[in-house]
Amino acid sequence: MLDTLPLENERLVYARPRTLASRYTHYCPGCTHGTAHRLIAEVLDELGLQDETILVASVGCSVFAYDYFDVDACEAAHGRAPAMATGIKRYHPDKIVFTYQGDGDLASIGAAEIIHVANRGENITTIFINNAIYGMTGGQMAPTSLIGQKTTSSPFGRDTQLAGYPMHMAELLAGIPGTAYSVRRSLHDARHVIQAKKAIKTAFEAQMAGIGFSIVELLSTCPTNWGMTPGDSCDWVRDQMVPVYPLGDFKVADELQQARGRSKR
Protein backbone atom coordinates (compact mmCIF):
# COMPACT_ATOMS: atom_id res chain seq x y z
CA MET A 1 0.00 0.00 0.00
CA LEU A 2 2.83 2.42 0.83
CA ASP A 3 4.19 1.97 -2.70
CA THR A 4 0.97 3.40 -4.13
CA LEU A 5 1.16 6.73 -2.22
CA PRO A 6 1.67 9.72 -4.53
CA LEU A 7 5.14 11.25 -4.39
CA GLU A 8 3.78 14.67 -3.43
CA ASN A 9 2.68 13.24 -0.05
CA GLU A 10 6.26 12.41 0.89
CA ARG A 11 8.27 14.84 2.97
CA LEU A 12 12.04 14.90 3.39
CA VAL A 13 12.87 14.62 7.10
CA TYR A 14 16.58 13.85 6.96
CA ALA A 15 19.47 14.94 4.79
CA ARG A 16 23.20 14.91 5.37
CA PRO A 17 24.51 18.46 5.89
CA ARG A 18 26.73 19.57 3.02
CA THR A 19 29.45 20.52 5.49
CA LEU A 20 29.54 16.99 6.94
CA ALA A 21 31.83 14.79 4.85
CA SER A 22 30.33 11.60 3.47
CA ARG A 23 32.51 9.06 5.26
CA TYR A 24 32.52 6.81 8.30
CA THR A 25 34.04 8.09 11.54
CA HIS A 26 36.33 6.13 13.83
CA TYR A 27 34.34 6.95 16.98
CA CYS A 28 33.15 4.20 19.32
CA PRO A 29 29.44 3.25 19.38
CA GLY A 30 27.56 5.64 21.63
CA CYS A 31 30.20 8.39 21.52
CA THR A 32 28.59 11.78 21.03
CA HIS A 33 31.46 13.29 19.04
CA GLY A 34 29.41 12.36 15.98
CA THR A 35 26.40 14.24 17.33
CA ALA A 36 28.53 17.34 17.91
CA HIS A 37 29.94 17.08 14.39
CA ARG A 38 26.48 17.00 12.87
CA LEU A 39 25.29 20.00 14.88
CA ILE A 40 28.29 22.06 13.79
CA ALA A 41 27.78 21.05 10.16
CA GLU A 42 24.08 21.94 10.28
CA VAL A 43 24.87 25.36 11.74
CA LEU A 44 27.55 26.11 9.14
CA ASP A 45 25.11 25.11 6.40
CA GLU A 46 22.31 27.27 7.80
CA LEU A 47 24.61 30.28 8.14
CA GLY A 48 26.07 29.74 4.66
CA LEU A 49 29.60 29.46 6.03
CA GLN A 50 30.90 26.20 4.54
CA ASP A 51 33.21 27.89 2.03
CA GLU A 52 34.32 30.54 4.53
CA THR A 53 35.27 28.28 7.45
CA ILE A 54 38.62 26.96 8.65
CA LEU A 55 38.72 24.20 11.28
CA VAL A 56 41.67 23.67 13.61
CA ALA A 57 41.53 20.07 14.85
CA SER A 58 43.01 18.96 18.16
CA VAL A 59 44.89 15.92 19.38
CA GLY A 60 42.66 13.36 21.07
CA CYS A 61 39.70 11.29 19.94
CA SER A 62 38.83 14.11 17.53
CA VAL A 63 42.28 14.03 15.93
CA PHE A 64 40.76 13.11 12.54
CA ALA A 65 38.01 15.75 12.69
CA TYR A 66 39.53 17.39 9.61
CA ASP A 67 38.40 14.32 7.65
CA TYR A 68 34.82 14.56 8.85
CA PHE A 69 34.04 18.16 7.87
CA ASP A 70 34.00 19.36 4.28
CA VAL A 71 35.77 22.63 5.07
CA ASP A 72 39.35 23.86 4.99
CA ALA A 73 41.10 22.39 8.01
CA CYS A 74 44.45 21.80 9.68
CA GLU A 75 45.85 19.86 12.63
CA ALA A 76 47.45 21.48 15.67
CA ALA A 77 49.95 20.07 18.13
CA HIS A 78 48.45 18.82 21.39
CA GLY A 79 46.74 21.71 23.16
CA ARG A 80 47.89 24.32 20.66
CA ALA A 81 44.74 24.67 18.56
CA PRO A 82 43.88 28.12 20.02
CA ALA A 83 47.34 29.46 19.16
CA MET A 84 47.13 28.12 15.60
CA ALA A 85 43.61 29.47 15.23
CA THR A 86 44.84 32.87 16.39
CA GLY A 87 47.44 33.00 13.62
CA ILE A 88 44.97 31.86 10.98
CA LYS A 89 42.29 34.35 12.04
CA ARG A 90 44.73 37.26 12.13
CA TYR A 91 45.98 36.40 8.64
CA HIS A 92 42.45 35.71 7.34
CA PRO A 93 40.20 38.00 9.42
CA ASP A 94 37.37 37.51 6.92
CA LYS A 95 37.23 33.74 7.56
CA ILE A 96 35.29 31.87 10.25
CA VAL A 97 37.85 29.99 12.36
CA PHE A 98 36.97 27.43 15.01
CA THR A 99 38.77 24.89 17.15
CA TYR A 100 37.32 21.53 18.13
CA GLN A 101 38.92 20.26 21.35
CA GLY A 102 38.50 17.65 24.05
CA ASP A 103 39.02 18.10 27.79
CA GLY A 104 42.55 16.67 27.90
CA ASP A 105 43.60 18.86 24.99
CA LEU A 106 41.93 22.07 26.15
CA ALA A 107 41.86 21.86 29.96
CA SER A 108 45.20 20.13 30.55
CA ILE A 109 48.11 20.65 28.16
CA GLY A 110 46.27 23.46 26.39
CA ALA A 111 44.94 25.31 29.43
CA ALA A 112 47.30 28.26 29.03
CA GLU A 113 46.53 28.49 25.32
CA ILE A 114 42.76 28.74 25.78
CA ILE A 115 43.05 31.20 28.68
CA HIS A 116 45.30 33.55 26.75
CA VAL A 117 43.24 33.38 23.55
CA ALA A 118 40.23 34.42 25.65
CA ASN A 119 42.24 37.10 27.43
CA ARG A 120 43.24 38.59 24.08
CA GLY A 121 39.64 38.47 22.94
CA GLU A 122 40.55 36.65 19.74
CA ASN A 123 37.54 36.53 17.43
CA ILE A 124 37.42 32.73 17.11
CA THR A 125 35.03 30.01 18.27
CA THR A 126 35.84 26.92 20.33
CA ILE A 127 33.72 23.79 20.60
CA PHE A 128 34.82 22.03 23.79
CA ILE A 129 33.90 18.36 24.29
CA ASN A 130 33.91 17.43 27.98
CA ASN A 131 33.60 13.68 28.62
CA ALA A 132 35.47 13.75 31.95
CA ILE A 133 38.23 11.40 30.79
CA TYR A 134 41.13 10.96 28.39
CA GLY A 135 39.61 8.96 25.54
CA MET A 136 42.24 8.24 22.89
CA THR A 137 45.13 7.37 25.22
CA GLY A 138 43.38 4.80 27.39
CA GLY A 139 40.88 6.29 29.81
CA GLN A 140 43.14 8.18 32.20
CA MET A 141 41.94 10.85 34.62
CA ALA A 142 41.42 14.24 32.99
CA PRO A 143 41.21 17.70 34.57
CA THR A 144 37.44 17.35 34.23
CA SER A 145 37.12 13.88 35.85
CA LEU A 146 34.66 13.87 38.72
CA ILE A 147 35.60 13.48 42.37
CA GLY A 148 35.72 9.75 43.08
CA GLN A 149 35.58 8.82 39.39
CA LYS A 150 37.60 5.69 38.66
CA THR A 151 39.91 5.80 35.65
CA THR A 152 42.93 3.83 34.53
CA SER A 153 45.20 6.32 36.30
CA SER A 154 42.93 6.75 39.35
CA PRO A 155 41.69 3.19 40.01
CA PHE A 156 40.48 4.15 43.50
CA GLY A 157 38.72 7.27 42.28
CA ARG A 158 39.81 10.88 41.91
CA ASP A 159 41.23 12.12 45.20
CA THR A 160 41.13 15.90 45.60
CA GLN A 161 44.16 15.87 47.90
CA LEU A 162 46.21 14.30 45.13
CA ALA A 163 44.62 15.63 41.95
CA GLY A 164 42.58 18.66 42.89
CA TYR A 165 39.04 19.37 41.77
CA PRO A 166 37.22 19.09 38.42
CA MET A 167 37.94 22.14 36.29
CA HIS A 168 34.95 24.24 35.24
CA MET A 169 36.24 25.73 32.02
CA ALA A 170 33.06 27.51 30.88
CA GLU A 171 32.85 29.40 34.18
CA LEU A 172 36.60 30.08 34.23
CA LEU A 173 36.64 31.53 30.72
CA ALA A 174 33.47 33.52 31.36
CA GLY A 175 35.39 35.57 33.92
CA ILE A 176 37.90 36.80 31.33
CA PRO A 177 37.09 40.19 29.75
CA GLY A 178 37.88 39.09 26.18
CA THR A 179 35.28 36.33 26.26
CA ALA A 180 32.03 37.31 24.53
CA TYR A 181 30.11 34.06 24.89
CA SER A 182 30.69 31.13 27.24
CA VAL A 183 28.03 28.48 27.81
CA ARG A 184 27.63 24.81 28.71
CA ARG A 185 25.20 22.41 27.10
CA SER A 186 24.84 18.60 27.02
CA LEU A 187 24.34 15.90 24.38
CA HIS A 188 22.72 13.21 26.51
CA ASP A 189 19.19 13.40 25.07
CA ALA A 190 17.25 14.92 22.17
CA ARG A 191 16.02 18.00 24.04
CA HIS A 192 19.51 18.93 25.12
CA VAL A 193 20.92 18.26 21.66
CA ILE A 194 18.49 20.85 20.27
CA GLN A 195 19.63 23.33 22.92
CA ALA A 196 23.26 22.59 22.08
CA LYS A 197 22.69 23.41 18.42
CA LYS A 198 21.20 26.80 19.31
CA ALA A 199 24.26 27.59 21.44
CA ILE A 200 26.67 26.56 18.67
CA LYS A 201 24.83 28.80 16.24
CA THR A 202 25.04 31.75 18.64
CA ALA A 203 28.77 31.16 19.10
CA PHE A 204 29.39 31.38 15.37
CA GLU A 205 27.14 34.42 15.11
CA ALA A 206 29.29 36.10 17.77
CA GLN A 207 32.34 35.56 15.59
CA MET A 208 30.50 36.82 12.50
CA ALA A 209 29.65 39.99 14.43
CA GLY A 210 33.28 40.41 15.50
CA ILE A 211 32.39 40.54 19.18
CA GLY A 212 35.21 38.40 20.61
CA PHE A 213 36.05 34.91 21.80
CA SER A 214 33.22 32.37 22.10
CA ILE A 215 33.15 28.86 23.56
CA VAL A 216 30.49 26.18 23.81
CA GLU A 217 31.25 23.39 26.28
CA LEU A 218 29.36 20.18 25.52
CA LEU A 219 28.98 17.39 28.08
CA SER A 220 29.62 14.23 26.12
CA THR A 221 29.74 10.45 26.56
CA CYS A 222 32.64 7.98 26.52
CA PRO A 223 31.00 4.55 26.86
CA THR A 224 34.20 2.59 26.09
CA ASN A 225 36.41 4.18 28.74
CA TRP A 226 33.57 4.51 31.23
CA GLY A 227 32.83 0.79 30.81
CA MET A 228 29.16 1.41 30.08
CA THR A 229 26.59 0.80 27.39
CA PRO A 230 25.68 3.81 25.24
CA GLY A 231 22.34 4.15 27.02
CA ASP A 232 23.87 3.94 30.47
CA SER A 233 26.51 6.50 29.50
CA CYS A 234 23.81 9.04 28.56
CA ASP A 235 22.18 8.42 31.93
CA TRP A 236 25.55 8.94 33.63
CA VAL A 237 25.94 12.32 31.98
CA ARG A 238 22.47 13.30 33.21
CA ASP A 239 22.82 11.91 36.73
CA GLN A 240 26.51 12.46 37.50
CA MET A 241 28.00 15.10 35.20
CA VAL A 242 25.20 17.65 35.02
CA PRO A 243 25.06 18.13 38.84
CA VAL A 244 28.81 18.84 38.82
CA TYR A 245 28.81 20.80 35.57
CA PRO A 246 25.54 22.77 35.57
CA LEU A 247 24.15 23.73 32.20
CA GLY A 248 23.61 27.36 31.36
CA ASP A 249 24.94 30.63 29.98
CA PHE A 250 27.89 31.94 31.97
CA LYS A 251 28.61 34.97 29.81
CA VAL A 252 26.72 36.60 26.98
CA ALA A 253 28.25 39.94 26.01
CA ASP A 254 25.92 42.92 25.82
CA GLU A 255 26.77 43.41 22.13
CA LEU A 256 25.76 39.82 21.43
CA GLN A 257 22.50 40.16 23.32
CA GLN A 258 21.71 43.29 21.32
CA ALA A 259 22.57 41.55 18.04
CA ARG A 260 20.37 38.59 18.95
CA GLY A 261 17.54 40.94 19.86
CA ARG A 262 17.78 42.72 16.50
CA SER A 263 17.75 39.40 14.63
CA LYS A 264 14.45 38.42 16.31
CA ARG A 265 12.62 41.55 15.18
- Indicate the radius of gyration in whole angstroms: 19 Å
Quaternary form: single chain
CATH topology: Rossmann fold
What structural category characterises the helix and strand content?
Answer: alpha/beta
Number of helices: 11
Stretches with pLDDT under 50, minimum 5 residues: none
How much of the sequence lies in strands comes to 15-25%
**Helical proportion?**
25-40%
Largest sheet: 7 strands, mixed
What is the typical, i.e. mean, pLDDT?
94
Number of strands: 7
Looking at the structure, what is the overall shape?
globular
Order of helices and strands: HEHEHEHHEHHEHEHHEH
CATH superfamily (homologous) name = Thiamin diphosphate (ThDP)-binding fold, Pyr/PP domains
CATH class: Alpha Beta
Task: Describe what this molecule looks like in 3D.
It is a single chain. The chain is α/β, with parallel strands linked by helices. The protein has a single domain (24-263), classed as Thiamin diphosphate (ThDP)-binding fold, Pyr/PP domains (Rossmann fold). Helices cover 39% and strands 16% of the residues. The protein has a seven-stranded mixed β-sheet, sandwiched between helices. The radius of gyration is 19 Å and the shape is globular. The termini are far apart. The model has no long low-confidence stretch (mean pLDDT 94).
Give a quick rundown of the structure.
This protein has 265 residues and is an alpha/beta fold. It has helices at residues 33-46, 65-68, 81-91, 103-109, 111-119, 160-163, 169-174, 190-208, 223-226, 230-244, 254-263; strands at 53-57, 72-75, 96-102, 125-130, 179-186, 213-219, 248-252.
